[in-house]
Amino acid sequence: MFSLFSKRFAGTFMLLFAAGTLRAQTAAIKGTVSDSATGEYLPSVTVVLGGQGRFSATDVFGNFQLTRLQAGKYNLVCSYLGYKTQTISVELAEGETKIIPVKLKPAPMSLAEVTVTASRDIGQTMTLINQVDKERRPTNSAQDLLRLVPGLIIAQHAGGGKAEQIFLRGFDSDHGTDFAVSIDGMPVNMVSHAHGQGYADFHFVIPETVDELKVYKGPYSPRFGDFATSGAGEFSTRNGLDRSTVKMECGLFDTYRALAMVDLLGDKHLFSKQQENAYIAAEYVYSNSYFESPQHFNRHNIFAKYHGRLNDRTSLSVSLSDFSADWDASGQVPERAIAQNRITRFGSIDNTEGGTTSRANANVTIASATRNGALFRNQFFYSHYRFDLFSNFTFFLNDSINGDGINQSENGRNIFGYNGTFEKQHKLGTKNVSTHAGIGTRMDEGDLALKHSVRREVLDTVVSGHLSQQNMHAWLEETISLTDKFSVNAGLRFDQFLFSFVDFRNDSLTGKNQKGRVSPKLNFYYNVSESFQLFVRSGIGFHSNDARSVVSGQAGNSLPRAYGCEAGSTFKIGKRLLINAALWNLDLENELVYVGDEGVVEISGATRRLGVDFALRLEIGKYLFADADINYNHGRFLDLPEGENYIPLAPVLTSTGGITLKKEKGFSGSIRYRCVDSRPANENNTVTAKGYFLLDAVIGYTLGKFNFGLAAENLLNSDWNEAQFDTESRLLNETQAVSELHFTPGTPFFVKGSVAFSF
Question: How far is 76 from 674, CA to CA, in rounded Å?
Answer without folding.
Answer: 42
